[in-house]
Predict the structure.
Amino acid sequence: MIELLQKVLDAHGGLERWNSFTSLKATIVTGGELWGIKSVSQDTVPREMTVSLHQQRASVTPFGKPDWRTAFRADYIAIETTQGEIVRERSNPRESFAGHVMETPWDPLHRAYFSGYAMWTYLTTPFFMAMQGVSVSEIAPWQEGGEIWRGLRVAFPDDIASHSRFQDFYFADDFLLHRHDYHVDVAGGFAAAQYVGEYVEAQGFRFPSQRRAYLRGADLQPLRERLMVSIDLSDFRLS
């Protein structure tokens, strides 16, 4: 394991302790411009997000109706009742985004798939970087104001769904994540710079409670007037 990744894992709570848990729950509230672009109704109702730590599975409750939830894995998405009855489902969901551009409307299963893989990535960062098949290398640092943030580039394997195969993560002197860059392949490949912060501690781990993803310009700078997605997180619980 490369030296920077080891320091990052330790700063966030430690890989050995992470491996002693199997799932994570958090309360999320989302907003931003993307939902309107995708013709998706959006409100500020808090939702419970659940992710598996060592395999890519996720669920958000409620979704659409008070007694509905999602069931996500990389090759499957469903909306189901809280009793487990299937409402709608789609196999090979990534294929349903073929030909999409940023303005292409999404149906509920598109949104459920996007939310599933995105929140799994966010909530398991940086620990997923130690999973089998994930390739990590150190890249040139990023200057943010008067600070220098060291960077890691992740190459995701085919069996993990995420925004794009290659994504960059930047860490300040505290070795905590502060910026995450990627392309949103399921929405025409637009470039995003996501800033994370307001860290909280839960069961010995450090989690950012605020995420703000901006459209990213050709110069790699965020376009602050284009807030694509906002996520506020609280009540982190590992089991």
